[in-house]
Every structure is written in structure tokens, then in C-alpha cells.
Amino acid sequence: MTKEELLCELDKRNVPKGIYSLSGIKDGECLCIVHKENIWDVVYNSRGGITYKERFDNERAAYDQFYQIMKDDYGW
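and the corresponding C-alpha cells:
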């Protein structure tokens, strides 16, 4: 899945923009994608503490995992 496809799916499912970030760490409780060089990290930021982190060397794989986490959390 691409970033644009993921954004489209999240919008279609009315996922609040405040609970995720596809462009780095965001304050509060949120699932984030952090991209640095050729690495994409999917992380959960819990008020400044990372409670989940998975690393990918493939952009599509990172966005697929992000979507799967949201899908599991929301029960789609």
C-alpha cells in the first residue's frame, strides 16, 4: 500500500487525524510512521514513550503494517 492509498482508506473509514501521523512522531497517544533514509519505523507513541516499534526497509510493507494495526484495533 502507498502512503496515498493509506490516507484514502483512513479518510474513508473516518479515522480521526489526531490518533495517527504518517510524517513522524506526533505528541499524545498515536500510531506513527517515521521515515529516515531508507528505513520506515511504525511506532506507537504514548505521551513521549515509544511502546511499540517495528522497522521496515520497504515503504509499502510499513504502510501495510500500519493499516493492519488500525484494522485490528478498529475491527474492520
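(Above: one complete record from the training split.) The first strand starts at residue 20 and ends at 21.
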